[in-house]
Amino acid sequence: MSDDAVVRPRPEAVVTLRPASGARIEGGFWGARQRVNRDVTIPLGARRIRESGAFANLEAAARGAGGEHRGKVFADSDVYKWLEALAWERGRADSDGLARAYEEAAGLVAAAQAPDGYLHTHTQLTGRERYSDLASSHELYCAGHLMQAAVAGSRALGDDTLLRVAAKFADHLVKDLPADALDGHPEIETALAELYRETGVRPYLDLAARMVTGRGHERLPLKGHHGPGIRQDRVPLRDATTVEGHAVRALYLAAGATDVAAETGDGDLLAALTRQWRDMVATKTYLTGGLGSVWYGEQFGGPHELTPETAYCETCAAVASVQWSWRMLLATGEPGYADLMERTLYNAVLPGLSLGGDRFFYVNALRVRAGANPDDRRAAARGRQDWYGTACCPPNVMRLLSSLGHYLATRSEDGVQLHLYASGTVRAGDVLLEVRTGYPWDGRVEIVVRETPERPWTFSARIPSWADGASVNAEPAEPGYHRIRRAWRPGDRVTLDLAVRPRLTAAVPRLDVARGQVAVERGPLVYCLEQPDHPGVIVDDLCLAATPGLRDGAPIAGLPAEVVPMIARGRIHAHRDEDAGFPYRTAAAPREPEHTGPVDLTFVPYYAWANRGAGPMTIWTPMH
Amino acid sequence: MSDDAVVRPRPEAVVTLRPASGARIEGGFWGARQRVNRDVTIPLGARRIRESGAFANLEAAARGAGGEHRGKVFADSDVYKWLEALAWERGRADSDGLARAYEEAAGLVAAAQAPDGYLHTHTQLTGRERYSDLASSHELYCAGHLMQAAVAGSRALGDDTLLRVAAKFADHLVKDLPADALDGHPEIETALAELYRETGVRPYLDLAARMVTGRGHERLPLKGHHGPGIRQDRVPLRDATTVEGHAVRALYLAAGATDVAAETGDGDLLAALTRQWRDMVATKTYLTGGLGSVWYGEQFGGPHELTPETAYCETCAAVASVQWSWRMLLATGEPGYADLMERTLYNAVLPGLSLGGDRFFYVNALRVRAGANPDDRRAAARGRQDWYGTACCPPNVMRLLSSLGHYLATRSEDGVQLHLYASGTVRAGDVLLEVRTGYPWDGRVEIVVRETPERPWTFSARIPSWADGASVNAEPAEPGYHRIRRAWRPGDRVTLDLAVRPRLTAAVPRLDVARGQVAVERGPLVYCLEQPDHPGVIVDDLCLAATPGLRDGAPIAGLPAEVVPMIARGRIHAHRDEDAGFPYRTAAAPREPEHTGPVDLTFVPYYAWANRGAGPMTIWTPMH
């Protein structure tokens, strides 16, 4: 287990926590997801990316001639993200097949690079002037994903094929990129910071810092009906009080800015990012952790604009959110960042991938109604798709799943911190921990100390914010980090009970779209009502009884046996004849629906929805 | 008062009602709106359209040379709609100024026409091949608006300048338009039908019918991420069960199809349109009558997808809805069509225009929150605008206001029907009625028979669906048409009391976005809470008390003295400290907000909002 952290601050960086030296997920919930990712999703990605023409673009660029470019201007980035996933995957457990695929693609990338270091096949093949349309060309966005793949290859494999390509490109950028150049789509900022961390070449960090600082002065040309905020170019990040504009762009930029703040010790910038993160969580985050409520521009909406059915919640935004929160967690050590990461991983990243690993959601609605127009391309009712013309999300999930182990734990002068729970091992310096758990189905987590120095150190475990009644070694534990400082011996155990039980969740009054409704959760999982479990009635008409008696149910045919559904007492809204016409009536008070019933409602984890066909679904359920 | 109906079925058309020969609004609510339209909006439109380059395009086309085209491909239609408004306005009361403006512009249009009858300045100036990109070019859309202006000029003024241009263009289309040609934006269908009605040239109707029938077979190329439904090309209109896609396009098409059904006696088509209208009203119509809930594609959403804050409700869609419902009313005589027209006129068309007549809303939100991002170009929080780059809405309101009198009344073999109430006179054959009313502020409407034949006939007056407790001549009257058949004498009176009183309105259970909330209405007007009336607290936090004691208030500074505000007892949601963080909490039931209070809430008519600055506003208010 090498020191292959996915984010690795320099020794001089101002951070509270540093990544564990290594962590490996073995079995359990996430182990199964990693296996599907390795066996199905990554190989499928290779085929789909080949079909999209992205490899052909690199081959054409390698031949040095111009010619047709296939797919989107950012097609290269699909290859890079998939390569990053391959690198992390090989770091977990190499195979001849993985090695061959990686080496072939990495070699192709190297061959496609221009002699001076530049690499962007769309620009190279079409002959467009470099950097002449940075607002839309995604040249630096692609460069960023190349750098991230290169860092992964170097850290996970000790392979420098891509690192040399990335460094040569970065050197070119440091030397030749026009001053004040900004890419319309942030991404390179965090990548340059990480490339600096991997290589020690300070100008990479300086360039990242310049791009972070240069944003927010309305330098980028406007696009469509959008203002400068869509590309985070309205307000300097240092002055901003909230996140705005295109969600993925905003989150990648915030991640990069957090890297820059850590490496430069810029406390003002970190304070600004803290403010923005808090406002995002308080006013712009769906219950699932999903981000971005507006289809038009794939962007953040206004505060509390969190309509379930029109949620955008791009899978990439969830990945980017995990990346940002992880960096904030390293910087500050505050548990809220890990709370959001966990919520997001289970309920906003994972729904982007089918249980079989071969179908995808780009957009993640929190409600689908009966009667959704099949022609409405927004409609989640159309179900998961095989792939996308803009295929940013699938390889983003691949690389996150492959590297997930790196997000479980951190270390500090003081000791070791466990943030996320999965069966496996965690190495932090001279400490080695073994983790055994049936989480998230079961709240019990057993940690066994396998190696330890003789000096005392502090073991910290995050008690999730929802874990009312949690305990550590049978003693009550409050949400936040539960710390145990002592001298440890090999074989010592810590037993957590994270109080994984069914619960109902409601929203604050300003969140009007959830008014009169509750959500069902169990541990870190958000649940939903889905049509296949309710034949003969439509989900739109179901409501919870006032005393719902929420309880675990038996396994459901068509879902993996491990999935624990939840059952509750409910009712069915009756339709009065008058409801068939204009849907508004004079009434002395809000309408209380008449209902029939009782019926049993079945809730399934949201991440598992749309695996038994597409159809109505809701996370929020009325209750009365 | 000539027989200048805005829609005039041929004698052989299969319709239940026919337009009154003429109607004139004199004073009162709508008289004031017509005066502002004449004195402010129409002259302002001339300046703005000139500034946009639309006149310059016609001038350049008239010179016969190619050259730069300014503005959008549909810029010509702004001129045509404004000309249509001018024609109706001159029909109401001509002036030298209006006559000069009309003649100059009409002459320019005539001069711009190509020798063979074709006219579309964008195509003429850029040299693009005619009809080569009908999905996007708006060539026939513009032709349709030209035809409507021409019909208005002929009917209102007896002027055939534009009618000759339109007929020549239509002749050209009948002869030379490629078979199966469809415009991406319907409009020409209803225009061709009306041009047929005005000229008797049957091939115009046949072409309209062909276009109505030809739609729905996926012939138009796809656009962006949209399916064929965005342009009503997924399902033949005859088979469709609901409206779908771009709202304005769907509604113009439906209006044209209704014209075709009436003129050809196509009962199946009318039945299909009836089904679609009913589904639209039951599942896709905002309380205001506004239509189109989706920004992306300016389109209808799914059933009950009627989120207040992201309502699109394009002002043009409201105008188009009035046009369609009027045609359905003529075809069927059913009161629901007039109910929707009235609701739409007051609450979806009128909000598109400022009280001063010089500022506009293209999109009409039903809720604006505090803290809306000023960079969010969707935000109604930005307030009304001076004009729009796509300026379809302002001249659409102009032409509807100028011709509004034509929508008040109809006649049949049996008698005369009053559908909408405004002070003025109605001529229907040998019947002349005088109407006096303070409506919508006051529910009393007095109708005086000024001229009548000796034979008995039936007077019908629509009792609005909300008018609980209405009376006619002091006798209780139910919603729908109240009919009085007898022999009438000059001087006879009918007195309606339409029970204009404050009331609360709630939504059916499936309309979840209004859950736990009510709206305030008074007569035909929908009211809203607006920020200027609630200093020191934000509208987002206001709620109605369970016994609100809704009552009329005193006039409000900054609004016209006639506007009756409504006052109710309310409370202010208290913010608990915990509400500052992640906005979801474990709770046994939906969260009942704590509140302080009582406070007085002030509701103003929705059409009058955003005339005292922009800011938070809501039509739906929580109540508990």
TrEMBL record, chains A, B:
Domain Non-reducing end beta-L-arabinofuranosidase-like GH127 C-terminal: 502-622
Residues covered by the Non-reducing end beta-L-arabinofuranosidase-like GH127 middle domain: 416-499
Keyword tags: Hydrolase
InterPro entries: 6-hairpin_glycosidase_sf (IPR008928), Beta-AFase-like (IPR049174), Beta-AFase-like_GH127_C (IPR049049), Beta-AFase-like_GH127_cat (IPR012878), Beta-AFase-like_GH127_middle (IPR049046)
Span of domain Non-reducing end beta-L-arabinofuranosidase-like GH127 catalytic: 25-405
Highest taxon, organism lineage: Bacteria
MF terms in GO: hydrolase activity
PANTHER family xrefs: DUF1680 DOMAIN PROTEIN (AFU_ORTHOLOGUE AFUA_1G08910) (PTHR43465:SF2)
Protein name: Glycoside hydrolase family 127 protein
